[in-house]
Amino acid sequence: MERLKDKIRDIPDFPKPGVIFKDITPLVKDPATLRLTVNQLIHPFLGKRTFNAVAGMEARGFIFGSLVAWELGLPFIPLRKPGKLPYDVQSVSYDLEYGSAALEAHIDSFNTRDKVLLIDDLLATGGTAKASCELVEKLGATVEACAFVIELDFLKGRDKLEGYEIHTLLHY
User: Fold this and answer.
1) 94 forms bridges with which residues in the sheet?
2) Contact 110, 135 (CB under 8 A)
3) pLDDT greater than 80 at residue 22
């Protein structure tokens, strides 16, 4: 995991003073490290789960989620910000530290037989991840597990995902 940590760049005071942003750009820029990241995201699930779909939330979840889906030979379902999808959608709203946000997916994205692996780059406060799970389940599927590249342990986002299996590569 040190190889992955070496590719995470700290950006102080972004997006606001006092925050240290964990920049994944150097990681995704390096093909070998990106491949290692994807392999490590799926490793604990190989041979143990019967996922039949992968979902990722906008935007960085698209990077890792689509690569995980490709590696597993599964469909990738994007969970988008409002107004980005052209067909009928379901949505889930959630609170942020300052304001609110929402995620949407096409109404035919999932069915009741779908077992979903949810992927994102970062688990912070857990709001986006929890809303993503709610959206997948609102559309009839089951979230089998969630996997993240980075978890900011001090923000206790894992607490909002009680009842879900969680796999994280890097803890800060």
Assistant:
1) 101
2) no
3) yes
Check if 60 is active-site. yes
Confirm if 123 and 152 have CB atoms less than 8 A apart: yes
Catalytic-labelled residue, pool 49, 58, 60, 71:
60
113 is catalytic: no
User: Residue 165: helix, strand or coil by DSSP?
Assistant: strand
Q: Where along the chain do its domains lie?
A: 50-171
Q: Which long-range contacts (CB under 8 A, 24 or more apart) does 80-87 make?
A: 80/104, 80/105, 84/58
pLDDT in tens, 92-128: 999 877 779 999 999 999 999 999 999 999 999 999 9
Which listed residue (2, 35, 49, 97) is catalytic?
97
pLDDT tens-digit series, residues 32-67: 999 999 999 999 999 887 899 999 999 999 999 999
Nearest to 25 by CA among 54, 51, 60: 60
pTM of the model: 0.95
The per-residue pLDDT for 6 is 97
For 103, the token pair is: 């995620």
In whole angstroms, what is the distance from residue 59 CA to residue 53 CA? 18
Q: Which CATH number is correct for 50-171, 3.40.50.150, 3.40.50.1820, 3.40.50.2020, 3.40.630.30?
A: 3.40.50.2020
